[in-house]
Structure formats: structure tokens, C-alpha cells
TrEMBL record, chains A, B, C, D, E, F:
Domain 4-oxalocrotonate tautomerase-like: 2-56
One Gene Ontology MF term: isomerase activity
All copies of domain SnoaL-like, residue ranges: 71-173
InterPro entries: 4-OT-like_dom (IPR004370), NTF2-like_dom_sf (IPR032710), SnoaL-like (IPR037401), Tautomerase/MIF_sf (IPR014347)
Top-rank lineage group of the source organism: Bacteria
Keyword terms of this UniProt record: Isomerase, Pyruvate
Name of the protein in question: Phenylpyruvate tautomerase PptA, 4-oxalocrotonate tautomerase family
Signal sequence residues: none
Claim: tRNA processing is one of the keywords in the record: no
Organism name: Marivita hallyeonensis
């Protein structure tokens, strides 16, 4: 049953408004088990001159980029070993933790580390989850890995999950879990 | 800058309304980088007689339970080996996937499987993430494991992440990743 | 899809609010073919101190009585020949037109006129329609008549329709059509 | 005092919006005796991208045609004996009941029936009433008939009322009452 | 914390809307000590066809001119002794009261009166206050006077305050206080 | 025509809400020449749990006292020479300017100064104006003075105007103008 009105400044694209209606719809569903048709979201848009906070007219803050898209682009760049492109998506204080590793801060460290583990690896995605929490966007990507071990034997179907934190459009943290250790041990 | 008005039926508790204002605030932040003080959420509450959909007055749907609480309770019951309590939180078609296992459907299977891996295990939580997506509530719990291997040697600091899907208050799916395989291999 | 918010002063009964949500729902449907579930009506109610027009706080105007109820009560009183009760529902300048009669203003005229036509008559209702238009409430009652002709033979199933205009709770006009003339002629 | 806000999708014509504000104004007046100047109706219009129900953006449903206009056009076509035009306004399961007749379903039946009653007939309108109720639009047309009896003598001033039910722009039912039987009997 | 929505007809300029958001912000602050960032004003604008009062569509009333601007223009014209321009800003029944004078109605009276007091006078403004109250706009202008006494000696720094009432864009009343009497007496 | 909705937290008294509706009505009139009956102000009140800014529930800020009342009380205390009561209404950095005086900061200074001018003085009020501007409440009190000169001769009808600035319920500035200098000079 809930009906949501959000009041925003003019200037957001249709896609950004769709992301907003979608996020608000999911926020309602998170708490209230209303059927789909009963949740309506409406956006009131105001030109700057018709909106004042503290007596000052305001300009709309540019929408945040879709964090899932950032994560997909990053993972694609990493698979393609385009480290320059991948690096450009990271904040200066970026940190990543891979299975049973200490935190790493540079992509070159990761590449070095992986050389001792497999020749190549690719991801097949089962799904993404994204949310805002504690001041950052959080994105989960999960699915399975396939590729070649160091000895050239292929592997596939190895489950993985990556967790990302994104702030102001930059990735600040990546945590990775997967079943490679289990599989190798078999 | 966004201001959100949500129109709901009367009958939700203060806690449920807080969960709703919080979820709506996060939904806005997911798309718009507004400063905290500029995001306002207001709930209009209507008695049944002042709210009609399709010409019919409506009763509020009971709020969904907090899925993070369900997950915490479930994990606590499992740690305490209170299988009966844990089972009562699962939907009939519940399925779980643990590292390098086939899907399991009964908790007894899991207990059996774990007996071959460790004497005991406990969780320390680093954080929970929860969202609504694709018709279900999704909860992530992550942190580290400590306990005893089969030979009695202790372990701790082993990273884990659990992903849960919850529907209508029941857990329908659990996916678990952790670094046990990596650690055992070392 | 339309969502309607009506802002009213506090003080209306649940029944009056239901009549209002129902009238607003029908108003939408009159113009937009929205499915039932997509039309929501919400009433915001304000205590007098939170509502000012022209800088003056206001008291709610008492709701108008349901005009269909007035018409039913009037027709029931007439059938029971309780002319006093019926008369009390009429405005001073009340006028009625029956099939092929000149306008009448007093119920006694009607009784006199009917004596030349039948011994008794009762109504069975097929339906009522009610609306507001041109400053008055309009109510239509339709159905069939049964009773006895002057010679004692019974009749039934004779179609009728009555149109009423009601202003401020009083009936100001009644227009009657029926098939008695056709039936008698057969 | 009531103030009404209706939230609709963009795309309705000025005339359609006027019909909506008018219907909502009458809906309020049906229940609350507010003076004219105190009833305000405001329409919020949303582009599709700023409106989502169940997480889906929506297109506005085309407005229903004005049912009074349909009825006028139909009656005009019938007077002009343009049966083809009149037929096109009827739904397949159309039914009509005239004074002391069985239900008829085809306009040719009606023409045949009327040939035994008068040479010609025209309507002068005193007024129309229209509303939405029970899932259909209902239109009442009332006034007087004039024309020629079978023997060529003229008649006029014979009261009539027609009731129509319209669904999705098509007439599904017509009920007719008039004083012809009374007049002929005199 | 207060959030204000004002519903107005389309047609006001950006400047007029700014004046409105500013006046509404000040109205809130007059009663509630909310911090600046917590007071938001939003203007909903409706085309005529989407706004009806008493069932009638409406045209926006032209905004009132800024009364402070009228007062500034008037005082500037008076300083420049452009009596024609000044006169055009006065309503027919204009009245003014200067220190220890009877009410005057014509600017020529004022000029005559002042000739016995000083050769010339100019204003330096410290500030303006403007508000709406009791059906008129009220403007206060205050600051200091400088000029020459009748004997040619200069003066300056003499405090003054003028109070104006403005109705429908015309000045209807001016009341003047200043310290000239005190200063001359010293 | 404008309709104003203000969203506030629950907890304000009826009087405070009346002050708010009144201030908002005057704010509209300051810009738009709408007739009285066309300006409606409605206050939506929210319990703390249904209102969140920046994800935090809020308590209502206590309403500011009516600054005109503060000014009246202060002037009454001064007339009664209740300096203690008057002093309690002043902020520490209070400053006052009387005709042709330097700024004074203590009430005792004022009393001393006045002793050289008159034996006693009382105010008759013609009106008050109050507004919020530049971060302070501004109150104007105007009318006439009556009392006794030092030689015991009475005076009355001497015009005065006082301007006050009030911040957080304390008077921070008083500026006084009157015609005493003019009158004494006559």
C-alpha cells in the first residue's frame, strides 16, 4: 500500500530517476510486504528557483554513478588485465583482501600473488546485490570462476563472491572469497 | 536535498517506522550524494477509514521482520546446535551451499558434513548488509571464524561470508564462503 | 494510476469519510479507466488549529446526509402513507411531476390523484444512482411497481424510475416516470 | 474547505483534465457542503520516468470518452435514422428496454416496434446527469418528445427519460421511460 | 526542521518565486528556531488547466511589486525633487505625517513645510524592513540624514526612520521620525 | 490561490501553530494579492518516530516566544521602573540608542539620561509590526507619549517609534525615535 513521494531538484536523467524509483520501491519492500501493484513512487521535480533550503536556491548534486556498473567495469578491466583502466576506478587508499592474504593496496601486488595460483581466471556472474549502508555503496558480485591452473589443467564452476565498497564513484575496498582452496585440496 | 514522504496505514510500531525511514534514507543516498542534513523522510499515517485502494478500505500488512535479526538468531541457534530452533526459521524448500559442497537441504546433513572438518566453530561478526532485491530480502553476514580442528588444534581469524535469502520471514537459501580450505592447505 | 489526496478538517465520521473516498474513487473512474488496485484515495485530517483559510482557523462543515438514504426514507414513508414523516423531508418549495400530470406541490394532491388510478402500489428497487450536479444532489431510484388496480386486480412488474433533487438535506423536486399508462392500455 | 490533489501521469488533454477537476469537485460537494471558493483541486502530472508502480514505469491509460457525449451522439444518430452510426456505438451484448416491451438487442427491432406507435419522434432535452457507479458510466437524458402519431396528428411535450450504461466507450444498456402511454390513453 | 510546500499557479517569474520562498522561510523562522539547512521551501506550480477552485480554472494574480523597491524609488524621486514621479507612486488618499506636523496630503505641502527647516536633505540608509500586516505591505526605511540648514551650515548623521504603508502597489501612508528637533536644539 | 502545507514535528501548542499559520499567510500575501478565502495553510504534524533528517529522528525545537509580547512586557516593565524585570529580558550585549544620544548599554544610564528631560513618561500604542529578517526578530512599537516635563507641565500626543531586535528570546537592540525635541522647541 505505501505511496512514496520524493521531492528532488530538476536535472536528473531518466535513468537516474529510474534508479531512484527502483531504490525507493525496494526500500518499502524491505519493511512492508505490499504487493507490487500497491507500491507507487512519484518524483516531484523542482527548478532551482522553486526550491530553497535555508533561504538559498540550490543546484542538484550530480547523481552518483551506479555502483554495480563501476564494479562490472572494474572486474572486466581486471580480467582483460587492463590495469590502467582498473586503477583509475580505485580511490587512493584502496585496499583489497583475497583468500588467506594480507591486505594488498596495489593491483600489481595482486597480479604477482595470483601468478603463484593460476594461469588465468574468468568470472561467470550469478548475480549482483547493491545497497547503501554506513556512508558507502556496497556491491556484491557472485558467481563461478573458470580458467587454468598453473599446470594448464582447466577448472570451472568454482564459487566466488566479491564485496566492494564504493565512495563518490571510486572503489575503496574489495574483499574476495572463493572455493579455490577447497577445490585445490581435493 | 531530497525530501521523501511515504504514505502508510496506521498500525506500524515505532521500530518498524524507524526501519522504514532508515531504508528510505539509504535508498536516496544510493543515488544522490546529498549531505545527511538535507535528506528528510516523513511518514504520513492513515487510519483505515481514511485510506482506500480501489474503493476499499485497507488494513496494514504486518511489517516484515528485520531479516538481519532473523539471520543473527539463526546463526546463534546453529552455533548452540539448537537445530530445532534453527529449523523453525527455514522455509520448507530451504537450500544451503557450503564451500565445495553440493546443495544440502537438511541441517542434519550440514552437521554430518562438518564433523569431517572441525570439532567446533564460532563466528565473530565484522558486519551485516541487508537489502531487498528480486522479491526477497538478502542478508550478508561476514566476519571471522574461530574454533578447533578435528585434531584439537585451535584456529581463528578465518574470514567467512554468508549470504541469506529470506522470504516472508523464513530463510529460503544460505550460501557460505570462507577461507578454511586455504588455511588448511597452508 | 491516479492517487488522490484530500485535505479535510477533523471531525467527520468513519462513514462520512468512506462516502468521501468512494465519491472520489468514482470521480477518477469517470474519467480514467484505471484498474481498481491502482486508484488510491487518502484523507489528510487537520485539527482546526492546524488549518487556516484567509488566516482564520475553521470548523468543519457538517457532512451532508446521504441523499440516497433520504430518498429511501421518503419513499418508504409514502408507501406507508405516513404523510407527516414524508412531508418533513421536503423543502417548502417542493414540486413533483407524475406521468401526465401538472406539477403538484402538496402530498395530499398526489394522494388524491392516485385514488383515481389504483388502490395500492409498492415499489421493488432494482437500483439507485446518486451524484452531485448543478448545485444539488440528484438521486435516481428505479425498479418495478406492484399493487392493485381500482377493480382489485393485482399488477406487478411495471417499470418505474423516480428522479429526486436534494438540497441541504431536503427534497426539492421529484419527477416520476412509469409504464402504468402502457400497461393499462393493453 | 477540502483541497484535493490528484497525482496523474502526463499526457491528458486540457479538456480531460478539466473533466477530472470537475468530477473531483462534484465528488467533494456530494459529501461536504463547502462553498465554491473553498474547494480547490490540483493535478500533479508526472512524466513516465518519474512515476513507478510496482517498480515499473507506466504509461497513462487513455482517458475515457465523455459518456454524455456518446449518448448525445447516439440519440442524434437514432433520430436521423443513421442506424449504422448508432450501431457502431453499441457493445456486442447491447440490450434495450422500452416502455412495456421485452428487452431488444438490435436497433432494427426497435425501428420495427416503433412503426406501430408513431410516424416520427424527436427529443428536446431538459438535462443530462452522468456518473460512474458499479463499474460502468451511467448517463441519464431527460426532456420531452414531439413528433407525429400514426394518423399524422402531431404531439409534443411528452416527458421522457433514458438511462444508459456505458463501458469502455460503448453503450451496453438503454432503458427508456416516457408518458406516451398516458398521453395516448387520454 | 519545517518543510514548506506552496502550491501556486504557473506564471510567476524567477524573482517573484524567490521573493515567495524567502518570505515563507522568514515566516517559519519567525516561530521556529530551526537551523538554516533544515528549512526547505518547495513551490508546486500548476498550469491553469490543472488547478480549479470552485470548479473553475484560474489565472494567476499578478505578483505584487516588491514594496521596498517602491519605497526606495519614491525616496529617490523625492530627493531629486522629481515630484511628478513621486506623486505617481501615491494612492489618491495618501497621507503623510512628519515630525510635529499635522497630516499632509500633497507633496507640495511637504516641500513648502521643509523650506522653513533646511535648504537640502539627503538620506543614507542603514536598512529596510518589510512585511505584510493588516491588509497592507509595511516598509520601514532607516538611516541618517545629511544636508544643509537654512543658514548654509551642513549637518549629517541625524537618525531618521520612515514607515510606509503600500496597498496594491501604491503608497497610502508615510510616517516620519527623526532627530532634527533634538539636534537643532543643541 | 496559494495553498501552503508546512510539515512540522508534533509538540507545538495551538497558539504556536496559530502563529505559524498566520506568519505563513502573511508571507503569501506579501507577494501574491490573493483574496483571503483563497489562501489556505495546513500543518502536517509528525511524531518523532515518523520524521527523520539524515536518518535520525528529531525532537521539535521549542517555538520562539512571540517577540511582540517580549517587547510589550519590556516596555511595561520600564514604564513601571521595574528595572530588574526589564534587565532580565536583555541579552548581555544589549545596546540602545535614544534620540540624539550615544549608544547606551545599561538601563541605569537611560534612567539617568531621562531625568534631565522629563519627570515621567507613558506610552499609548497605535500599533506593532513584527517580522523575521537577517537572523533576528524585529519588532516595531509606535504610538504617542504622555507625561510631565521637568517643570511639571503635562504633555501628550507626542509621536514615538521604537525598533527592537530580538534573538533567541532576548532583546539585543533598541532604537528610539520621537518628536520630543520638536515639541520642546515649540
Amino acid at each position: 500500500m505505501p505511496i512514496v513521494e520524493a521531492h528532488i531538484l530538476e536535472g536528473y536523467s531518466a535513468t537516474e530517476k529510474s534508479r531512484l524509483t527502483s531504490a525507493l520501491t525496494n526500500a518499502i519492500r524491505f519493511v512492508v510486504p505490499a504487493p507490487d501493484v500497491a507500491i507507487t513512487v512519484m518524483l516531484h521535480e523542482y527548478p532551482s528557483e522553486a526550491y530553497a533550503r535555508g533561504g538559498q536556491h540550490r543546484q542538484p548534486a550530480p547523481a552518483l554513478p551506479d555502483p554495480s556498473t563501476i564494479v562490472r567495469d572494474y572486474l572486466t578491466s581486471m580480467e582483460a588485465r587492463d590495469l590502467e583502466a582498473a586503477q583509475s576506478m580505485l580511490r587512493e587508499d584502496f585496499q583489497m583482501v583475497f583468500p588467506a592474504t594480507d591486505p594488498m593496496t596495489r593491483l600489481s601486488e595482486l597480479i604477482e600473488w595470483s601468478k603463484a595460483r593460476y594461469r588465468s581466471v574468468k568470472k561467470t556472474y550469478d548475480g549482483f546485490d547493491a545497497l547503501h549502508g554506513n556512508g558507502v555503496a556496497v556491491v556484491y558480485a557472485r558467481g563461478t570462476l573458470h580458467g587454468e591452473w598453473l599446470d594448464g589443467t582447466p577448472f570451472d564452476g568454482i564459487r566466488f563472491i566479491d564485496r566492494f565498497e564504493i565512495s563518490e564513484g571510486k572503489i575503496v575496498r574489495q574483499d574476495v572469497w572463493n572455493d579455490m582452496g577447497e577445490v585445490r585440496a581435493q
